[in-house]
Amino acid sequence: MPAHLHAHPPGSTSLAANHEAESPSDSVSSPRVFLSHDDEDAIAEIRRTLTEISHHNSKQGYPEPHSSFDKFLEAELQAGRKKSNLGVCFQSLSTWGDGEEHTDVKTLGTALWRTLTFQDVYEWTIQPWLSRKEPQSGRPLIRDFSGAVRTGCSTFLRTIAGHHSSFLGVTGSLDYSGLSLEEVKKHYRGQVAYVPEDDVHFPTLTVQQTLEFALQSKTPQRYQDRIPRYLEIYGRVFGMSHTMNTLVGNEYIRGVSGGERKRISIIESLATDSSVSCWDNSTRGLDASSALDYARSLRIMTDTCGKATLMTLYQASDAIYDLVDKVLLIDEGRMLYQGPAREAKRYFEDLGYECAEMQTISDFLTSITVPERRRFRPGWEHRAPKGPIELEEAFRKSSAYQKVQYDVQHYEDQRLGGKSVRCSQIDSDDGSLEDFKKAIQTDKSRFVSPKSPYTISVFRQVVLCAKRQLWQIRGHMSPLYIKIISSVVYGLLVGSMFYNQPQTTAGMYSRGGVIFYSSILLAWLQMSELEEAMQGRDILSRQKKFAFVRPSAVCLARVITDFLIAAVITFLYLIVVYFLSGLKSDVG
Predict the structure, then answer these.
(1) What is the CATH number of domain 188-324?
(2) Mean pLDDT score across all residues of the chain
(3) Rounded to the nearest 5 degrees, what angle is found at the Cα of 223, between the Cα atoms of 241 and 192?
(4) What residues does each domain of the chain span?
(5) Which of 191, 297, 371, 425 is least surrounded, with the fewest CB atoms within 10 Å of its CB?
(6) What is the pTM assigned to this prediction?
């Protein structure tokens, strides 16, 4: 394996040349390396080259491979790919949950009773109209949030991303550059993405197949040649190049590690190419270096492609913290601070809090919400605001809150020109709403409706899902082998039970038994598909929200592939049973 060369700073020496006489102790304790003048010149040239490379990379702003990622995105834009900019503005935003502290777990008996008495149907259809709950009657999860994003934490991200189904209600204003939440859900679903912290993938797919499916579902046919380049870039940036042909795996199937599975989730989410991305604790399970690579990648995509990025991070290093523009501190659903990240530390120090030595800024901000960890400046122990209520009141009286209100008003004036949200078509630095719609339509296939949230046609979705289904079967062939062997064994058993039945009326009932047992056994062999179908529901739900493929396309693709496999299994079974049971072997 070749050795790595490292550039040394001026004044340091890695190899020493000494032409003086050696002492006996020197010859024993420390070996000497004698170099000629040519060797010294070669070493000096290597140092100059490495210094120039290091200086060149520092001028680019990002080390390799992130600088290549930045150049690649810029080349994509220069090649004619349009930006799909979409900002977020929220004002007086509150989310309300059910006030009940517990939920009853359904048993088999209660499930049957609710089904037979049509209680589920009643709760889904009639009850919402007869007894509507006011959102304010529930428990507040986040309270009166305001802010603008141009370029409980999970609750806030899900509220911004429009995932409101689990909430009792959401009040306030939520605007996406002139688009309402209903318009985004219906026509631009994939442009606002919520990325949860759970890593759920098909375990029998390789890393490359998982990422290739995500990229192909968001890339029209005319741009398919770019997918290998995207895979290469993403693999280099996140250190996944060596695992591309490895199964994703799970607790039963051996595959990649938990940290590598987290990177797969990140790359898959980046493939959505969403304009607004909400990342929920996506650094969980990553080491410090990988977490920094992830943050740099988001910073590059935000700057180069004009994205709006919101993310929750726990125990973020100062290197990651320096990459963000704004920080929002939440405790018990209350907004304790929102503003520039570089001003957050000074703001809380002015309130009387103290940041310990060698403590990261993110850890300092988190400690403010924990009574056992927060520290006060001398003399401020009784004057500093404490608890979420006092800190929220202090923030709303501060100049930082006035700056937030100014940013919201400036955002609306810039986007709306002082008019209503729904009627704005005014250009801004980020482009108009019409430019956004044109950019989205440009990235779609020719056979996709302009109002559809999907990128590729239904036919291509079915083909892509069928190919993924075949990939899954090939990645774990044991169930298929078991089915084939079982069909042959069942054929031998049934054929031996009704071996060589007479061709007269005496064998009529026996032949009916052959047909009956064959139907039951062949249907029983397909029961094993139910578990696999149920396990993929979470993945299907997430990919529907990402606007990868339609659920109907996935179901149709499964029917096609299952039919082909069932045809092979049925053929092998019937060949054995037909001739052993003495069924008619000619056309006469």
Answers:
(1) 3.40.50.300
(2) 77
(3) 80
(4) 188-324, 458-580
(5) 371
(6) 0.72
